[in-house]
Amino acid sequence: MEFLQGDYAEYLTGQAQSAVAVLHDFNLVWRDGDPVVHVFFEGADDPVFLMPEVRRTAADMRCIPYVCGGKGAVRKVRDRIQELGAPYADCMFCVDRDFDDLLKCQIDQCARTYITDDYAIENYVANANFLRLILDDLINVGVAEPAYSAIIERYEDLEQQFISRSIMLHAWILAARAEGLKVNLSNLNGLQSVMEVGFDGVRFAVDGFSQFRRRTIEAGQAPSLSDVKAWRARLADVPNADQWLRGKFKIWFFRHAVCACLRAAGEHRKAEGGKVIQIPSSIREGHFFEIAAGRLPVPPSFREFLDDCLG
Asked: For the chain, give me the number of helices (H) and strands (E)?
């Protein structure tokens, strides 16, 4: 099948190889009866944010995280461990929801598998609630200062602009995938050169959609316009945009929007003779999972999952 050629075939091969490597590590470590919980994740950022809560819930048990390198690899690892029998009860598997509910290809749910409520873990982090924690703990802007509420309000306005501008991109991706076209999102973890985010607003870059199209799909291919419009209407009816807004896009936007808001607030404060706002390198470089770990509560559904598995 053409769908399985090229980059997508290489992607699947890479996930299969990752699964084999993770299974090898697991087989070396697992011992029947050991007070150990083995937790399998898609990517490297997931355990950074989620493992502190796992360790708190697991109490005296040792917790070992594994990064599988993708949802397909997590599925392969889980299915193989299920076949082994006894080891399965010592394991937990965590994956992002992605577009898979919309495309009706979601990984099978089971008692040991956690699927995010929103599109991905990034969607839990990249929001105004986390921005408040950043202002409280990392930035010298007090909650009583006018700048505090101004930053939050401007961020929320930019976020709504971003959702409005990007909905058609997501509709285009979904329409293409539903039609069986190969869409390579690994070339587009952020939306650099596709969209521009600044304090004055969110807009498409010059030639932005053409850049998006060239980096995601083979030349000469495209979904039908009617299908794109239908998907856009469907996404617009979803009350919570984070259920379809791709996590890597959202956290890319979050970094640019937060830095823009902080720079503008800093310039305003300086003009009034106040102290300049220093933006830590962890924020400028987007190390948000490291900042969030232990500060931002994990989703209630994840705590419930842990209680069911470990309680």
From this structure: 12, 6
